[in-house]
Structures are given as structure tokens and as C-alpha cells.
């Protein structure tokens, strides 16, 4: 009897080792000879073969096991599903396969009451995060719960995925979550210090990129936690000086991504990427000013290594923007076809925020001909136009050239943007608060 038990235990041990190592042949052999293996679990954590395959990114084994299981939502000791473990470890192919196989994205573990979305955000796996969000848009969860509610799902301590991403210094995840409707000013209940917003948690984590993302999406520097602290106080207390400088309410207001504008959310992805970069560049220029007097220095812009030597004026196709006469035209207004640079487009959109008095949203109009803007697209070079359709949009040399402004053109840009944002910033701040 005792011998039988230990023999069985060693069988299981071999089986789980084979799953962990991704040894498909051995796994197949053992499952064939003993199908019940698939329902056994490890002694302490109660991990099934599916959990182990998912956590270790063993996609072939995972597929094989999934073929033989009725459903993929097995639970371990902490009620974690294989999908949660795949999201925790950033195993994107396993995340996708599990979702395909019908894994429920709205399961809560028993540790902190977290979903797979919390796991992806906490551990900073932006690809997994995106895959789960994409699934949430099409599954029954979206119908029963609503997508917006899912993006802002709270764990047992009242933390949304955005809170966790901010605390864990995950700027990429923050960006994706905000882009999908995460509430930038939501307060936690018990997570961190009670009443913390994502900005409080980013201040605590000391991640400048996170603070920058949140501010660009309209996070409120003056919102207080339950103890009355603003994010600035938190950054100071934690000795995150650069973050504190940006969070200081007396520092200049950052440009805010004009998310309430309907047409912005309908931008094609190329144009959106350009505008997002323009906004980040404008805010970085502003940050350099804020940090100039302090000992904190910002690293140079991330794209400074890609061809700063490019001489824009030597290119006959490029045209200077007729608004700022500083940047190259990268955005085309449709249907009229007028062109301007991304920075000016952005300033135009930020400037045209909805009017709270009349409660109507004035659609931004083309600054040249005042016609309505139906769409914003990326300017195409004339000779490249024909084969553009088939080309990878993101690898064109034009883009990197257009965006690699030298430091000299930054001056012009920041003053151009500055004049817009100075006029608009007070109003912007008010409206951000008023937003429903
Ligand atoms: Zn311009
Ligand atoms: Zn026009």
C-alpha cells in the first residue's frame, strides 16, 4: 500500500517535471497510459499540468492538455487559473491560447481578489494585458459586465489594474489601460494608502515615465488621499525629487491628451501614434524647463539615436508646417487635404476642448479652410503613395526622420505649444475635473 502510494507520487513528479520542461513526447506518453494525470495536482500549491505549462510558457504541452480537458479554468490552492499564471509570467502565446480555448477572464483569485488583468498590469506584461483587453471586447464578459467596468475592475483592496501598474512602475501598461478607458483619478479603498489615486501610487513608486503618462491623461495633481496628501507630498516623502518637481502644483501644467474628443478616439493608429509622440515630446520639453534648476536631469529623448543628423531641409518632398514654420508636416486633414505638423495638430485639438457651458462638443476644424475635420491621417510621401498599402506602416524611414527633431527645433516647438497651452491650460484643468 505504502509502496503503491510512493510509486504514484513519483509518477506524478515525473509527469509534472516533463510538463515544466516542455517535454511533449514524455507528456503524451504518460497521458496516454494514465489519462487521469491531467486532473492531478501538486501536493502543496495544487497546481495542475495546465497551470505548470501556462506559467512556464510551454505552449505545445498546453495545447495538448487543453485538447483533453473540458474547460481551461482549473483552480490551484489560491484559486488562480492557468490564465492568471500565464499573465503573471508574461507568456503571451499561452495567454492567447487559453483565451481561445474559452478561459474566463473574469475569475478572481483568493489571495487578493485579483483577475488576470490585474496580474498582467502588476507584472508589467503589456502584450498579455492587451490580449486580455482585446478578449474583453468580444466575450460574454463585455456583454454581462461591460468593457469599461472590466477595465476598471477592483481587487479585494479596491485597486484597479491601473493602480497596480502605477505602483509597480509599468508605464507601458498604464498607457494601454488609459487608452482603453481606465479611470485616471479613481481612488483605492485599502490598497496602498487609503484613497490613493494612480498618481499617488506612481509618486510612491518614483517612476517618472508613469507620472508623465498619468499627467498627460489628465491626472489631477491636487486630488488628496484619505490622509489629505497630494501626490507631490508622497513623492517628497519618498525622496523622488524629479517626480516631485513635476507633481509640484506650482509647476507648469502639462499638455493633456484631449481624450473627450470623439474624433481623437477614431484616429487611425498611425496618426494617433504621431500625435501621442508629439504630446510626449512637448511635455518632455516642459519637464526639461521644470527640472533645469534642480539636480535632476532628464535623459535625452528616446529617439535621439535614430538619425539626428538627418537634414530635413535637404529632402525635397518634405514641407514645413505653415503654422509653426518649424516642424515638418506629418498630419493631413481630410477631406480638405491641408497639412500640418503633429505638434500643431495636437495644440489645435487641445485648444478645442468641449465647451462646458453649451455642453456641445465643437468638432475641431481645419485651421486653413475652417472645414470640418473628418479624419486625420499620416502624410504620405508622393512617390511612396502607390505601394504604401502593402508596406509595413511602422517601418518607414520617413517617420523616424520626421520625428527626430534636433534639440534646436525643440525650442521652437515648445514655444509654439507653450503659447497654445498657456491660453488653454487653466480651462483644460477645469474641464478635466468636470468631466463625467
Ligand atoms: Zn506646426
Ligand atoms: Zn483645410
Walk me through the topology.
Layout: H1 2-21, H2 24-33, H3 49-55, H4 59-68, H5 82-88, H6 92-100, H7 116-122, H8 126-138, H9 140-144, H10 147-151, H11 161-167, H12 171-179, H13 198-205, H14 208-216, H15 231-237, H16 241-247, H17 262-265, H18 269-292, E1 331-334, E2 339-340, H19 342-351, E3 375-378, H20 397-403, H21 407-434
Antiparallel strand pairs: 1-2, 1-3
The structure holds zinc ion (ZN) (2 copies).
Task: Describe what this molecule looks like in 3D.
- This protein is mainly alpha-helical and 436 residues long.
- It contains 21 helices and 3 strands.
- It has helices spanning 2-21, 24-33, 49-55, 59-68, 82-88, 92-100, 116-122, 126-138, 140-144, 147-151, 161-167, 171-179, 198-205, 208-216, 231-237, 241-247, 262-265, 269-292, 342-351, 397-403, 407-434, and strands at 331-334, 339-340, 375-378.
- The N and C termini lie far apart (68 Å).
- Residues 300-316, 351-360 and 384-436 have low confidence and may be disordered.
- It binds zinc ion (ZN) (2 copies).
- One zinc ion (ZN) is lined by residues 333, 336, 338, 366, 368-369, 371.
- Residues 333, 336, 338, 366, 368-369, 371 line the site of one zinc ion (ZN).
- ANK repeats lie at residues 78-110, 112-144, 157-189, 194-226.
- Keywords: ANK repeat, Metal-binding, Repeat, Transferase, Ubl conjugation pathway, Zinc, Zinc-finger.
- Residues 386-436 are annotated as: Disordered.
- It catalyses: S-ubiquitinyl-[E2 ubiquitin-conjugating enzyme]-L-cysteine + [acceptor protein]-L-lysine = [E2 ubiquitin-conjugating enzyme]-L-cysteine + N(6)-ubiquitinyl-[acceptor protein]-L-lysine.
Amino acid at each position: 500500500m505504502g509502496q503503491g502510494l510512493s510509486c504514484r507520487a513519483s509518477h506524478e513528479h515525473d509527469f509534472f517535471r516533463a510538463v515544466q520542461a516542455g517535454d511533449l513526447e514524455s507528456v503524451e506518453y504518460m497521458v496516454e497510459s494514465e489519462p487521469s494525470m491531467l486532473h492531478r495536482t501538486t501536493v502543496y500549491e495544487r497546481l495542475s499540468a495546465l497551470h505548470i505549462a501556462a506559467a512556464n510558457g510551454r505552449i505545445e504541452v498546453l495545447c495538448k492538455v487543453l485538447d483533453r480537458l473540458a474547460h481551461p479554468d482549473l483552480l490551484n490552492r489560491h484559486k488562480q487559473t492557468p490564465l492568471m499564471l500565464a499573465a503573471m509570467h508574461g507568456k503571451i502565446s499561452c495567454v492567447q491560447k487559453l483565451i481561445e480555448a474559452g478561459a474566463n477572464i473574469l475569475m478572481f483569485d483568493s489571495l487578493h481578489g485579483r483577475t488576470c488583468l490585474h496580474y498582467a498590469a502588476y507584472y508589467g506584461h503589456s502584450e498579455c494585458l492587451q490580449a486580455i483587453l482585446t478578449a474583453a471586447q468580444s466575450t460574454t464578459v463585455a456583454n454581462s459586465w461591460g468593457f469599461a467596468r472590466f477595465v476598471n475592475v477592483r481587487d479585494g483592496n479596491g485597486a484597479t489594474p491601473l493602480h497596480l501598474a502605477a505602483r509597480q512602475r509599468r508605464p507601458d501598461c498604464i498607457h494601454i489601460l488609459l487608452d482603453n478607458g481606465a479611470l485616471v483619478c479613481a481612488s483605492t479603498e485599502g490598497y496602498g494608502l487609503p484613497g490613493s489615486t494612480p498618481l499617488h501610487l506612481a509618486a510612491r513608486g518614483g517612476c517618472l515615465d508613469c507620472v508623465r503618462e498619468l499627467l498627460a491623461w489628465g491626472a489631477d495633481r491636487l486630488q488628496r488621499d484619505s490622509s489629505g496628501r497630494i501626490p507631490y507630498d508622497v513623492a517628497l516623502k519618498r525622496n523622488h525629487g524629479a517626480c516631485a518637481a513635476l507633481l509640484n502644483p506650482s509647476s507648469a501644467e502639462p499638455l493633456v491628451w484631449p481624450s473627450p474628443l470623439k474624433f481623437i478616439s477614431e484616429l487611425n493608429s498611425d496618426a494617433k501614434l504621431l500625435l501621442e509622440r508629439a504630446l510626449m515630446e512637448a511635455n518632455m520639453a516642459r519637464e526639461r524647463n521644470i527640472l533645469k534648476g534642480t539636480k535632476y536631469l532628464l535623459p535625452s529623448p528616446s529617439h535621439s539615436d535614430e538619425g539626428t543628423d538627418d537634414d530635413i531641409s535637404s529632402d525635397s518632398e518634405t514641407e514645413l508646417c505653415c503654422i509653426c514654420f518649424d516642424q515638418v508636416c506629418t498630419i493631413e486633414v481630410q477631406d480638405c487635404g491641408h497639412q500640418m505638423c503633429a505638434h500643431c495638430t495636437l495644440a489645435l485639438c487641445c485648444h478645442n476642448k468641449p465647451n462646458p457651458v453649451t455642453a456641445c462638443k465643437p468638432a475641431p476644424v481645419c485651421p486653413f479652410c475652417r472645414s470640418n475635420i473628418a479624419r486625420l491621417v499620416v502624410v504620405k510621401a508622393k512617390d511612396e503613395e502607390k505601394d504604401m498599402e502593402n508596406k509595413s506602416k511602422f517601418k518607414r524611414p520617413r517617420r523616424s526622420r520626421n520625428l527626430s527633431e534636433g534639440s534646436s527645433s525643440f525650442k521652437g516647438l515648445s514655444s509654439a505649444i507653450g503659447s497654445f497651452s498657456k491660453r488653454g491650460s487653466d480651462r483644460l484643468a477645469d474641464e478635466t475635473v468636470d468631466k463625467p
